[in-house]
Amino acid sequence: MNNSQIGLGGGCHWCTEAIFQSLKGVTLVKQGYISSIGKNNSFSEAVIVSYNPEVIELKDLIEVHLHTHKSTSNHSFRKKYRSAVYYLDEKQKAIIATYIRELNEDFDNELITKVIKLNKFKSSRNELLDYYKKNPEKPFCKRYINPKLDLLRKKYIKKTNL
Question: CB neighbours (10 Å) of residue 39?
Answer without folding.
Answer: 7
